Every structure is written in C-alpha cells, then in structure tokens.
Design the sequence.
C-alpha cells in the first residue's frame, strides 16, 4: 500500500496584480490548488490567462501580490530573496520556450554549470544521455538544432535531481517530431526520478500525457480534468 | 516621438551618460585648467612687468661715472635708463648657524626709481637722510618672519651695522631671488633689500658713481645692438657684459617655470583629450550596437536612414555637450584656484584670471567633433543594415571548441569562469579596446606620478651625484694665495677643494651662450662629472667638458672647438676644444682643469672659492670662524635650500599634477564603468538566466566582474608600459636651460598607478554589481534571444 500522496505544492488564494501606470492587470485572482508529489500536470489556457505568472511564482521567480504557496509544508511566500534563490538552486528545474542556454558554454558545460552548484547531481553525461544527446556533449548551443538545444535545457534542468520541473511551453518553438522527443525526455524524468512536473502548453494534444489537466481562464481555474491513464509521449500527435 | 525616446534612453542609461560625460569632462577640464592657468599667468606677469617697469637690459660695472647716463639715454633704441648701486653683504640672522647673504640695491633719494619699481607690501620705502633704513623683499621677510620695525645686523663692506626694516616690497626683478652662483632660490638664506642711494654710495665709496645700470628699450629697438653699445661704453669701467631679460636670472626662472607649465599643458591635456575621445568612441559604438534591434524597428516603421541617424547623433551630442559643459565648469573653477596658487607662489602683486575664450571653444569643439565622428561610423553601420536583419538578434555568437579550450587553464576552471574567458576570447577586438582604454588611463597615471618622481630625482641627482659639497664659500676676488689646505684649517672641514669660476661667452658658429666656466682640480671629488649613463667623465688636461644641454644649445660635439670670450680680467678671446660631454640635470655648466683655465686667462692659478664637506656637528664652530675671515665673502649651504625648494615645488607643479591624477582616475572610472555597464546590457539575459537557475546574486556578479577583473588585470602591465613611453616623451619635451628630467620611474609610481586603477575598477565594479540585483528574471524568459 502506497503512503498517502504528499503534496508538493499547496497554493492558497493566490493573486497577482500588475500595476502599470494607472491601470491594474489582475493576472491571478485568488487561485487555489494542490499539486501532488510525482504528479505530471499540464496547464492549458488562452493567452494572458496567467499560466506563466503562476508557474513563475511556483518557481520562486516572482512574488505574488497576496496568497500563500507551500512547498513540502514550507511557506515559500514567507521566504526572503536568499532563501528563494537557494530553493531554486536545490529544488527547481526550469525549461523555457527559448531554451536560455549559455551560448559560451558547450552542452556538457551548460549542464555542469548547474551540477557544480547542486547537492547530489548526476553526471552531466548521464543527464545528456537521459535526453538522448550522449553524442553531442561537446557542441556549443549555436552548433545544435532547436530541439537539441531544448533537450540540453531539459538535461540541465533534471541533472540536479530537482523536486519539481517547471516547463513553460517547452515545445512552443519546435515542430511536432522534435517536440515529442523533448516530451519523451520529460516523461522519462517524471517516471524514473519521480519528479513533479508542470508543463504549460497551448497544445491540447499534449494534455493526454498528464495525470491532471488544469485549465486557466482569466486568472482562475476554469476546469480540471483527471486522466485515468496517461498516454505515452511517443503516441501523441498534433 | 523620437525625442521622447531620446529623453527616456538618456534617463535609462543615466549612469553611463554620467560616466561618459566624466571622461569627456576630464579631457576638457584638463585643457581649460591648464591653458587657462598658463595664459592667465602670462598675462599677469606681462602686466606686472609693464606696470612696474621691469628693465630690458642689465649691465654691471665696477665703478662707472654717473655722466654716462646721458650717453646711454642717447643710444638708439633706449627708452629709459636707471643707474644704481648693487652690493652683496653678509647678514647675521638670529637663530641661524649659517650666515645669510644679502643683496643691497640702491633706491634713488626722494623719488621712485625710473625702472624696476617696487610694490610696497607693508610699511614704506626708505626716507631721505636715514641711512640705516632698508626695505626687504617679501620672500626674505616672510621666510625669516621680519616686519617693518624689526632690525637686522649686517656686515656692510667690513663694518657691522644695524639696519632698520621699514617696509617689505615686491619687485619684478626678483620674482625669484637666487643668490649668485646658485641654481635654486632660498628665501631664508638670501635676501634682496633696498637702501637709500646716498647711504650705499657712502658705504661703498661710490660717490657720484654707479655699478649697475638697467635700461628699458623702445618697441623697435634691437637688443643685441644696445647690449654691444653698453658693453663698449662700460668696458673701461670694469663692465662684465650687459645682458637682456633672456639671461636675467629671475625672469629666466619664471620663464622656465612657465615653459614647464606650458609643456605640461601642451603635452598632457591633448593626451587626456585623445584618450577621452578614444574611449568615447568605444563606448558610443558599443552603445549603438546594443540599439541595433531598435534601429531596425524604426526603419521598418518607415523612418528614413537620415532620421534614424540624426536621432542617434542627437543622443551622442547630448552626452558630449553634457561632458563638455561639465569640463568647462570644472576646468574654469580649478583654473581660477590654480592661477591663484601660482600667483601667490610667484608673489605677483595682483592677479588677472583671463582664460582664453578660444581654449573653451577649442576644447569643446574638438570633443564634440570627436564624439560625432565616433558616433558617425557606428550609426552608419547600424543604419545601413536592412531592417529585417537588424531586428534579428546580432548573429548568434558562435563559440568554437578550439577557441577558448586551447588554453590549458580551461580544464581547471569551473563553468562560470569558462564563460568569462570564452566571452573575452570571443570578442577579442571589443575586449582589446576595453583593455587599451583601461591601460591608457593607467598610462596617464604613471606619467603624472612620474612627473613628481622626476622632479625629486633631478634635484637629488644633481645635489648628491654631481655637486656633493655641503658648503660653498666664495671669495670677493679670485685669490692666488688660497689653496685647499687653507680651507682645511677651518673647524669641521673634512674635505676642501678650490674652484675658479670665470664668466665667459661661449661661441660656436652663430650660437652664443653666456656661462661660467668652472675650473676644478684633477683630484676633485666633490664636483663629479658623470656621463649620461652615470659613469665618471675624465677631466681633460686642457679642453672643456660641457654639459649635454649646453652642448646641444651650442650644437657642438666632442672634438669641436669653441670660442671663449672671457668677461673678466684681461678679457682674452681664446678657443678651446670640447673634450667630453657630461650630464647634469640642473643649470648649464662648463668645466675645465683649473690650471688650464688659468693658463688660458694668462694669470697665475687662482681660486674663486671653495667646496667643502663639513662635519654636521661642527657647523656652529665653522660658521663662527668663517665670520672672522675677511677673505670669505659668501657662504651657502645647499642641502637646506633643497628641502625648501622641494616644498615650493609641491605648491605648484605638484598640485597641477595632482589634478591630472584626479582626472586620470576619473577616466579610469569612466572606462571601467562603461565597460561593465555595456557588458551587463549585452549579457543581461545570460546573467538573468543564471539567476533563474539558482545562482546567487554574488555568483552572478562574479561572472560579470570576473570579466572586468580579467581585463583590468591584463591592462595593468600594459598601462605601465604605455606610461613608460609617455614618460619618455615628456622627458624629451621637458628639457630646458635650467632643468632636465631624468627618466627614472620609481616602482612605487607603477604601484600607485596600479592601485588607483584597481581601486577605480573595484569601486565601479560594486556600482555595477548592484545592478545585478535589479535584473528582471521574468522578463528574460518572455523574449527570444
Ligand atoms: N510584467 C508585467 N507587467 C504588466 N502586466 C503583465 C506583466 N506580465 C504579465 N502581465 C499580464 O498578466 C497577464 C497574465 O500573463 P501571463 O504571462 O501569465 O499569461 P500567459 O497565460 O502565460 O499567456 P501566454 O500563453 O500568452 O504566455 C496578462 O494579461 C499580461 O498582460
Ligand atoms: Mg506564458
């Protein structure tokens, strides 16, 4: 019998208000949710619905206007700047639409950049092998295709064995075949390392690989769908 | 709309605007400060000379009848004639072991002198029929704390007299009061004083006669003609050769100071301006490179190349104008203070601060022109790119494996360090320019600090390597009967050497220089002749040894013959070979074997005085004894004078150099700050990504500053090297009749420059590092590279 699933993130009445001059933009309006350990979640929603804002707050890149976020019973929203940095360093792996690799470092070095400062990382080579890039480790980003670069980003994100993986449109800049390679990498990590994974996408086709699909609209959760079975990434198409 | 963008951009990068502005301002300020000081001082001096009727020609005779005045007044080109009596006396100053020397100058009874008038600083001029009243020159009075009402005791022509100080005054003739035979002023031990004519006539048996005449010339006069006529006229009366202002000691010194200042102001400011311009160029082109995308966008909207170009030109002009204006204000403000300090130092009775308008316009226009020219290329490059291409990110940096990895150290470095090295190696030109910029500011520092070293070193070398006597004694007339052994009998004397000084005019071709030839013995050790390389120069048995500067001025080399017109005794005209060239840093000198000199003169070997080294503990006994020896007319102690001279140098030249150091530091800060800021804007994305990955602010700032530190580290030795080159150039430019600078750079000079540059780098580093805190982590994720 499995122990009761622990919650990775607990989010309580989260709001985020952007103040630009006279006008206020409510990006999040009192959002409450739970993410379980090891869960794979896909976030859907129209442009401007607050997906990125939510994930950035979960990843400690941004502060909410009000509300609380707990990670494994620690209140992130009470952390100071230094503690947030340490939280990112130890627990969070990010993957962005535009890869955000260091152009001056090779694939291996981009991964090493992170493993050098992590507590219990895997070898850079091992992480790259995990995403199927074992043979391109000494290439610079400019010598890799977009999909390959994104897989380096995945390797970089997972190499430190993070508790959570936050992915903001990881396939947004890729064609479907390449996108699937990247999703397979995410799936592997989620399976083999049990990493809690949140994936933002505009692509409803991807939703089938998630445990739960959360839809946002106008800063609020509009719909939650639980998938009884997850479809392997390989079988997805769009 | 574009203007609004302009304003926002300027505000956005205000730190950089100020830093670039500082660099320009430093260049402009140095020009305005230096030139303004120089022109103001020249104007002040000229006005001083004119208002107080500084004479043009001076001539000394043993005893000439007053009736010659009418003859001289009739000479063509002569405007005014003023005769007087000038005599040297010895003063007993309380609290001073060594005697002081005084120069007495007569004042006409009951009227102002025709020429060389006095500016009375305190008290009054001497009154008719009061033979013991004297007016002191201000320098001597101040150095000895004498005021009207005080008394001084003097030995006047062998008689001890008590003189009443009734006033202190300034004279255009004695801006520097330098004792005969000396090279540097010593206000404590040498004083000029004015006394009634009748009193001096009586004291020196010169009734109805004069022994010095000064003349002023008409505008069209030919000085050389007047000098010849005066020489002819005075020769039967013991004239030793008239001379013009050119050879008037005080004016020569003032001129030498001005020349040094002029050199300082003609060499250094252009270097500052050039460095500032160069940096401006780097900064602007990098700035515009970062604006690439926006330029493409503007063009895509349909703005013409011209409109876009003009937009950025205005941007540059705004920064440059800001800098120029700041430079003007700083420069004028400092210049005013500087001129004041100099005027005080020269003891000018008044001060005209009149910086040339052209200095302002020139420095401003030049800076703007350079800024515009620099911007022009960068803007043109940006404007020429097709909008579609411009809007794309600048071609993604292609790093190659073999590039940075060739460096063996790479294997030892962590990933962040590799980023630093690769970034530098990836843009070698950019990194190079920054390195050059930093090293130039270092070079400016080295050469400015060097200047201070050189002055010290010059004096030290001269007084401790060339002229090593503690004390010089001078006899009133050349004495054949005094030999070194006689001087050895004085208390405390450890070594004594006699010398003979003969005033001559040395001629080579059409070139002529009045100098004193010093005859020294073959065994002489206190006076040392050294070659430029510092090796001893052998004293030839017959010929002359000229100092390098004198040889250069006469255009002679070893083996040439020169004519010597002796201005003393039987005044023979002879020729002599130049057998060697020696190196001395101060003054113009010529040396000869003393016996050979006597043979040339057709006289028995004689001595004009002696060089002594004296036990410092027995000075009191020495001076007490010397006072009783009538054959000793004057005694000077050089070591003490040297210290005081260094002190006055500190007040002027040194403060000017201090400003240069300040501005060089500003430039260093400007360069480093700009490099760091641009680096930050170029790498902001990378650095923000690092923050996202969980690197701390400190670690991220480390990557940014590490690059800066690396460049500064490379720039430091380069800066020292450039500084050395600059210093060599300055040495070359600085030689004049009175002083030459030795090219000796103390290790501490390099050390201090390195410290200033490093400190500038550290300070600016911290300023920039603070910006790492403000990196917008979310924003970088939204945009593509
Ligand atoms: N820095 C900001 N300043 C002002 N408003 C902002 C800022 N960032 C986001 N917003 C606003 O907050 C809202 C939510 O933005 P968010 O980026 O979370 O949307 P999103 O769901 O990720 O959209 P997309 O799918 O287009 O990426 C939007 O209306 C956006 O305009
Ligand atoms: Mg988004």
Sequence:
């Amino acid at each position: 019998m499995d122990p009761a699933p622990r919650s990775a993130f607990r989010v309580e009445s989260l709001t985020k208000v952007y103040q630009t001059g006279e006008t206020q933009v409510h990006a999040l309006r009192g959002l409450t949710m739970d993410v379980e350990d090891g869960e794979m979640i896909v976030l859907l929603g129209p442009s401007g619905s607050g997906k990125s804002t939510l994930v950035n707050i979960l990843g400690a890149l941004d502060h909410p206007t009000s509300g609380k976020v707990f990670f494994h019973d620690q209140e992130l929203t009470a952390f100071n700047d230094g503690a947030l940095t340490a939280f990112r360093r130890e627990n969070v792996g990010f993957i962005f639409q535009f890869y955000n690799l260091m152009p001056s470092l090779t694939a291996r070095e981009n991964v090493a950049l992170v493993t050098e400062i992590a507590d219990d990382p895997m070898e850079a080579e091992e992480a790259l092998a995990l995403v199927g890039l074992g043979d391109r480790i000494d290439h610079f980003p400019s010598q890799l295709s977009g999909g390959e670069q994104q897989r380096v980003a995945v390797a970089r994100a997972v190499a430190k064995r993070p508790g959570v993986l936050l992915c903001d449109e990881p396939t947004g800049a890729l064609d479907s075949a390449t996108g699937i390679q990247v999703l397979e990498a995410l799936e592997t990590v989620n399976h083999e390392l049990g990493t809690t994974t949140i994936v933002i996408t505009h692509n409803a086709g991807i939703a089938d690989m998630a445990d739960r699909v959360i839809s946002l609209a106008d800063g609020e959760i509009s719909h939650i769908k639980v998938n009884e079975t997850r479809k392997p990434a390989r079988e997805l198409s769009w | 709309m574009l203007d609004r963008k302009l304003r926002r951009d300027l505000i956005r990068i205000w730190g950089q605007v100020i830093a670039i502005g500082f660099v320009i301002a430093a260049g402009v300020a140095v020009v305005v400060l230096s030139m303004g000081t120089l022109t103001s001082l020249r104007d002040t001096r000229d006005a001083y000379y004119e208002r107080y009727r500084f004479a043009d020609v001076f001539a000394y005779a043993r005893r000439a009848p007053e009736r010659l005045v009418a003859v001289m007044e009739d000479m063509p080109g002569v405007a005014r004639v003023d005769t007087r009596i000038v005599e040297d006396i010895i003063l007993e100053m309380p609290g001073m072991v060594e005697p002081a020397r005084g120069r007495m100058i007569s004042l006409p009874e009951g009227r102002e002198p025709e020429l060389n008038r006095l500016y009375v600083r305190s008290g009054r001029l001497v009154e008719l029929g009061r033979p013991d009243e004297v007016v002191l020159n201000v320098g001597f009075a101040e150095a000895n704390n004498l005021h009207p009402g005080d008394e001084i005791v003097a030995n006047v022509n062998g008689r001890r007299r008590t003189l009443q100080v009734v006033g202190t005054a300034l004279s255009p003739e004695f801006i520097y009061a330098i004792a005969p035979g000396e090279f540097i002023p010593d206000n404590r031990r040498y004083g000029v004083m004015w006394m009634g004519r009748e009193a001096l006539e009586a004291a020196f048996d010169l009734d109805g006669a004069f022994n010095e005449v000064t003349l002023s010339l008409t505008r069209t006069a030919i000085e050389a003609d007047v000098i010849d006529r005066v020489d002819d006229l005075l020769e039967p009366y013991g004239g030793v050769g008239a001379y013009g202002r050119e050879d008037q000691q005080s004016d020569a010194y003032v001129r030498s100071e001005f020349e040094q200042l002029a050199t300082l102001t003609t060499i250094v400011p252009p270097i500052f301006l050039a460095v500032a311009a160069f940096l401006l160029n780097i900064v602007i082109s990098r700035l515009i490179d970062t604006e690439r995308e926006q330029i493409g966008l503007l063009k895509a909207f349909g703005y013409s190349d011209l409109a876009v170009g003009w937009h950025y030109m205005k941007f540059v002009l705004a920064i440059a104008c800001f800098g120029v204006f700041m430079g003007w204000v700083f420069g004028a403000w400092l210049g005013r203070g500087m001129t004041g300090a100099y005027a005080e130092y020269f003891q000018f009775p008044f001060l005209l601060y009149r910086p040339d308008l052209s200095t302002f316009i020139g420095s401003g226009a030049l800076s703007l022109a350079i800024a515009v020219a620099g911007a022009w290329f960068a803007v043109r490059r940006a404007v020429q790119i097709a909008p579609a291409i411009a809007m794309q990110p600048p071609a993604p940096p292609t790093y190659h494996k073999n590039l940075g990895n060739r460096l063996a150290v790479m294997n030892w470095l962590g990933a962040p360090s590799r980023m630093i090295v690769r970034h530098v190696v990836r843009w070698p030109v950019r990194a190079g320019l920054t390195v050059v910029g930093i090293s130039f500011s270092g070079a400016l520092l080295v050469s400015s600090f060097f200047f201070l070293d050189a002055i010290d070193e010059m004096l030290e070398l001269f007084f401790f390597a060339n002229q090593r006597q503690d004390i010089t004694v001078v006899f009133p007339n050349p004495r054949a009967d005094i030999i070194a052994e006689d001087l050895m009998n004085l208390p405390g004397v450890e070594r004594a050497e006699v010398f003979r000084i003969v005033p001559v005019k040395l001629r080579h071709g059409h070139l002529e220089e009045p100098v004193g030839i010093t005859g020294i013995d073959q065994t002489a050790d206190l006076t040392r002749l050294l070659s430029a390389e510092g090796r001893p120069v052998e004293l030839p048995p017959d010929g002359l040894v000229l100092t390098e500067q004198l040889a250069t001025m006469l255009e002679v080399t070893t083996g040439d013959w020169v004519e010597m017109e002796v201005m003393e005794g039987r005044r023979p005209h002879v020729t002599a070979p130049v057998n060697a060239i020696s190196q001395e840093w101060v003054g113009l000198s010529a040396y000869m074997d003393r016996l050979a000199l006597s043979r040339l003169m057709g006289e028995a070997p004689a001595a004009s005085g002696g060089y002594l080294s004296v036990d410092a503990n027995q000075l009191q006994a020495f001076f007490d004894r010397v006072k009783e020896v009538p054959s000793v007319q004057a005694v000077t102690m050089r070591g003490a004078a040297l210290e005081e001279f260094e002190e006055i140098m500190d007040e002027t030249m040194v403060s000017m150099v201090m400003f240069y150091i300040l501005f060089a530091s500003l430039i260093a800060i400007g360069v480093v700050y700009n490099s760091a800021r641009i680096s930050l804007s170029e790498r902001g994305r990378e650095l923000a990504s690092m923050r996202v990955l969980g690197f701390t602010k400190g670690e991220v700032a480390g990557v940014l500053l590490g690059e800066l530190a690396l460049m500064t580290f490379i720039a430091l030795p380069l800066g020292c090297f450039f500084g050395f080159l600059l210093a060599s150039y300055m040495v070359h430019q600085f030689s004049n009749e009175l002083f030459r600078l030795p090219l000796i750079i103390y290790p501490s000079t390099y050390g201090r420059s390195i410290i200033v540059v490093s400190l500038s780098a550290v300070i600016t580093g911290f300023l920039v590092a603070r910006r790492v805190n403000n990196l917008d982590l979310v924003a970088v994720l939204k945009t593509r590279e």
Observations:
- Residues 76 and 145 of chain A are 36 Å apart (CA to CA).
- Strands of chain A lie at 7-20, 23-36, 40-44, 66-71, 74-75, 92-96, 164-168, 196-200, 212-217, 220-226.
- The helical segments of chain A are 51-58, 81-91, 107-115, 124-130, 146-158, 176-193.
